[in-house]
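Hi all, long-time lurker, first post. I run a small reading group and we've been trying to get comfortable going from sequence to structure in the token notation. Rather than ask abstract questions, I figured I'd post a concrete chain and ask someone more experienced to write out its structure so we can walk through it together at our next meeting. Sequence below, copied exactly:
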Amino acid sequence: GGGMVLRLPSVPYPITPLLTDFLAVRLCRDRALWSRLGPWLDPGAMPDPAAKLLLTAAAELARELGHGPASTAIVLQRLYRWVDDGTHTTADLAAAEALILRVDERADRGEAVPPDDMLVSELTPMLQARARRQVLAEGGMLLAAGQGAALATFATRFSDIELIGAPVADLGDGWDDAEGAIASVQGLPRCPVGIEELDSLLGGGPHRGSFTLWGAGTGGSKSTSIAHACATALLAGRHACLATLETPKWEMMAKLIANITGFPLDAVRQNAPGAHIALRGLRGRLGQIRVQEFPDGATTTEQIRAWHDGVQQKLGDAVAFVGIDGIDGLTAADWKPGDGTYELGRRVGHACDRFAVDGNVWLHVSSHTQRGKKFTQLAADGTPVPGKDDLADSAHRSRKAHYIITNTMVATPDGAVNAYFHLAKSRYTRSGIVLGPIPADLGTARLVLPYC
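-- Answer (accepted) --
Happy to help. Here is the structure in token form:
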């Protein structure tokens, strides 16, 4: 019969553990390197189980996208799906995440890392030798089966083997990345953040099970950000819980009421009866909310998770939206100013990552996202918006975040306020996108004015 395929045993590659680690992680985030080595790599021959798992997921994504993955984030998303499907365990996922973290922390410390040329020169001879053995074995099998005519294509296959490790001049314009990645999460429930431009960019908002780190600099309306997003979830009929380490509970409740009813925040603070009447009229369509104030600098991630689990049990339904205002407070006990802001960012990132294990939509608002407090880009009207410094800072803050968003608020000469949003990281769209100027309405704790 036709269609015979012979697969040779997956003999482990004779490479060092250091090269194994860096090869696996780089191939999961570097399309150019994948195009040189990935299509010919046998994931089953990786000596480290975590590296084998990462490259197996990357190979599956490459078959779907038509090219290698552009970030470890989308590879981890595939592993999350496998865990949900029961084909792999949480221990497998933890090992893969630990491998990525091990490589990234080595680079963060400034230690020497194997360059691409070393990876290519080390692997290319092995891959070429394996590929030749594979083609020769299949050819012998076809000859033994009397199918010599099928060998006509083998000359091309031998020519292709010579291209292993060769640089690729054209990797496309990247739009297929976004389309393929977005398709991988289509159909999942969404939790809009209430900013039409941003929600549209994210396909309807962050999806269920995602984890978003949202930050702003000093005076950047961090508490308003989380109140706005939380109110959006409530208006959609979803349950939410909000832990606040910086803003008093009464102030956070006032922001929520103002946002939902449209009453001025100052009037709500003064207990205006009209705001409460309006709120009662909406309660039939609102989701339920629980707000808890935690001491800044004396709270652990475990305490907040235990509180969340208790809220979910009391509500008798999944809490679709979980917010934490001022997550930097979870690191204050371990960090000293002399440690530097980079170390603070690293600790904040690790604190965030400990929350990224739930099936809910997580939103964290951090108060120190602008490490260098520099704005290196200008919007169309010349006002500053978060730039590359913020992107670099945010990238090391959380390894597991699906999305990292920063915002800045800019006052106009006539006293109004415009909001700018910077999509610093996204697993599903092109990142580095700036949205704005968008008119804000901080008087009602809204990041953006409602659309008519």
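A couple of things your group might point at:
The radius of gyration is 25 Å.
Residues 170-178, 368-377, 386-396 have pLDDT under 50 and may be disordered.
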